[in-house]
Amino acid sequence: MFWEFIATIFAGLGGAGIALLLRHLTKKKAPAWFVPAFAGFAMLGFQIQGEYDWYPHQASLLPKGIVVVKTVQEKTLWRPWSYIYPQTVRFIAADMGHSAVNQRHPDWVLVDLYFFERRHSAKRVTQVIDCKNNARSNFFKTAQDSTFAWHKLKSNDPILTTVCAGIGTTH
């Protein structure tokens, strides 16, 4: 975040420099307010570009075997351009390269889900997905089969369809 702040300042300085150059080329006929206006637009443009480039950049950094299963796009009042082009602010990725089928319950898949959000650290949550009964549960090492707190999923839930298709299980 610190480097993003520094880059935003430099974008503003660059915008102000362009405005100063325009004023110089027009022999100061361009209004003086061009300088702060260009600086502000350059900083705003840099921030908007960073907001929209965040998701494709993060997704491109995912290692092989980790697939994006769900994205969350947002439209907000303080970003009026997001009503035209919604911004991806969060996404979930599943580590299919290290998922495992339960030996006693072949319809259960153990998978790590990674939750990414702009300006936050990624969070890893290990889940058990029941492909037969369309359910998921948090996994913890001391869990017994009867202690899972199952949460029903819709049959078209992207996490369910991706994880179950990735191991060849139908639901």
Q: Could you describe the 3D structure shown?
A:
- The protein is of the alpha+beta class.
- Helix content is 35%, strand content 26%.
- The protein contains three helices and seven strands, in the order ααβββββββα.
- Strands 1, 2, 3, 4, 5, 6 and 7 form a seven-stranded antiparallel beta sheet that branches.
- Helix 1 (2-25) runs antiparallel to helix 2.
- The radius of gyration is 24 Å and the shape is elongated.
- The mean pLDDT is 90.
Itemize the secondary structure elements and their pairings:
Elements: H1 2-25, H2 34-60, E1 66-74, E2 87-95, E3 100-101, E4 108-117, E5 123-130, E6 135-138, E7 151-152, H3 158-166
Antiparallel strand pairs: 1-2, 2-4, 3-4, 4-5, 5-6, 6-7
Helix pairs in contact: 1-2
